[in-house]
What does this fold into?
Amino acid sequence: MKFSLDFRQDRTNAILTSLIIIIVTLIVITSIKIILSSNNSAPRLILDTNRVSINVGDMYEIKYKTKNINKVDVTYSSSNTAIAVVSNNGTITGVKKGETTIKMTYSLGINSSYSNLIFVTVK
It folds into this structure.
């Protein structure tokens, strides 16, 4: 009789251990979801697109939305001004056929600088 009692106790311990593991796993998963969802409120700048195709002589205005940002300072630069140039207000102009990258840099405060790349094809 003692053997069957020990067997039941071992089985009960195994079930309790399994339940504890499941509960801890659920707590960890919930914590991760909370952390990830809280990052959605971080200030950021969202580009409408990161790929642009224009003809020589055509212009395209870079458009973006801000999330949780009151004021943002943006600067633009072209990696190859022989292909496309970009103005201070974010207007890209196709110069000659080819591909280049426009770098959009923005600051959200002291010592915080971020950048987005826009891949430009001039046809």
Q: What stands out?
A: The chain has one helix and nine strands.
